[in-house]
Specification:
Layout (H helix, E strand, L loop, with lengths): L14 E4 L2 E3 L4 E3 L1 E2 L17 E8 L5 E7 L6
Antiparallel strand pairs: 1-5, 2-3, 4-5, 5-6
Bound molecules: zinc ion.
The site of zinc ion has 8 residues, from loops.
Length: 76
């Protein structure tokens, strides 16, 4: 997995990685993703996570690019 930054697809500006978190009073989690038609598990009540999302923020225009990291590559 490459850590190299890419230029913004909107304006060509420099981007840097950000961490996108879901946060409430008790906890904070990195955002995850699942299939569009996935259903929560009847047993655990949770969606079957396919991986997590990383993001890069453009310093110039604020555009955020998401990238999926599948479970098999350490996401999830
Ligand atoms: Zn930009």
């Amino acid at each position: 997995m490459s850590e190299s930054n890419q230029d913004c697809i909107e304006c060509g500006g420099a981007t840097h990685p950000i961490r996108v978190v879901e946060q409430d009073h008790q906890r904070h989690d990195t955002l995850k993703y699942t299939a569009i038609d996935a259903k929560p598990s009847w047993f655990l009540g949770r969606f079957p996570v396919q991986g997590h999302l990383t993001a890069e923020l453009c310093e110039s225009c604020g555009h955020v690019t998401f990238r999926a990291v599948p479970k098999e590559q350490g996401g999830g």
